[in-house]
Model the fold of this input.
Amino acid sequence: MAELPDEQPVSGPGPLAAIRRYWRQVVATVGVLAALTLLYGAVSPPAQTATARIGLTNPKGFDLLSQSGTSGADLGRYASKQAILAQSLAVRQRASQLLGGRLSAAALAGAVQVKPSTNADVLIVSGSATSGRLAADAANAVTNAYIAESQVQIDALLRQGLGAIGSRRAALEQRINNQRTAAQKIAAQSAGDELKELDKNEGSLNIQAGSFGNGVSFTDPASAGGGIAGAVVALIENVMIAALLGLFVAGAVAWWISGRRPRVEDVRQASELLGAPVLAELIGTGPLEADGTRAPAIPPTLHLAASALENHTQGVLLVASPRRGDGRSTAALGLALATAQAGWKVALVDADFRTRRLSTQVPELMGARGLGDVLAGRATLADVAVRLWESDDSLPAPLTAVGAGSIDHIAGLLHSESAARTFAQLGAHHDLVLVDADAAEAGPNAYLLAQRADALVVVVRHGARVADLETFRNRLVQLQTPITGIIYIRHRTTSLLSGGARTPAPRSRTQPVRYRANS
Done:
């Protein structure tokens, strides 16, 4: 009984390898996200921004603002207070009027943001709109509205200060006018000194108001962006960002899936998983030229595989694989040619009744009766077996082929005495019987044929799921069918006869093979 190889932990590939493995899905994800972003940008163009700058006059030393001896921290609070003023309802209403109603005060709340600079000496006014011109107009309107509103507040502070001085002056003048006695006249002299101080303060406030002005030292108006060109650039940037995001997300998902569903990455891993040597590695075949009398050329590695089979017990060798599309039929045909050219009497049997892939590659077998008809009793091996390329001197031993034919109740017939008798008869007349089986995932037929076979050659495709190989290996261990070797398919192979053409060039039909009944 075949022994299972020691279990080895299988890790998934790295991120780049995972992206290469699932590159179609990754490209599709990136393309979909980029297309959706482009479509959304066409329907709803991306917002464009424009920035204006307002230089703040340093309030330090201005009694008008009650900021005498202002510290650095106080400057920050002052700038933050002015930023709040620039975003106030009064400023936004004034800015909306300056814009002629193109943006309402409520819309300006979301379209324009104001924040102080790091040094607290500049207000940065950022406008955002569907066009660069509107964004610049919104930022400039808020800037001008803030300057006007700031002037209003400075004027109000000046009136408040002057009003307080006027009230105090009136009270002092009334006290002076009411003095009668000598002591009162002395007090009146003190009030007069205070009046002089008030006059001095009033002049100082007027000077400060003139010097401070509206509290703005300079302005840098916002300018419109690139117009349509700017919108296109912004759209392209958004599409690129979406594509990069799609690449990151799809790559992360592919990496995660690869870790959960590890795949075969090289020949050595396939050999370890199945516990069998690698007979050949097929990189893929290119166009092959073959006429009606000569067999097509085959990859040199298959000749090495034929040499490796010399120690194989003569009998039935099943060519199988876990999943569809792994290249079984191509490998079976190439191996049959290699062993026939090595001097073996070989019988090649198409037992894949689902796809009949081998029969479609060999014109002599297309549409003809075959194994199914023999198992059902409608024909004998002598009726369905044909010799291929008899006149080709590169085949020192005859190569016999048996097509799939037609069959009903496949599983029952493969399990019947007729199947045992048929394979025994083939084995008696040939050194090696190569049987092209259906994929194991397609149903029980491959395992039923494995019970009839002396050994298996497993075709493993690069990137095959590790779990599929493990399941296939465990089932074969239960059937006690040994694996002689592995044929590793690195890329999808094409027909060895036609270089990938769907219908090979017709060849002349050879004479049928005559079989005697197996005793």
Residues 1-10, 285-290, 497-519 have pLDDT under 50 and may be disordered. DSSP finds 18 helices and twelve strands in the chain. Residues 384 and 443 are 26 Å apart (CA to CA). The longest strand covers residues 48-56.
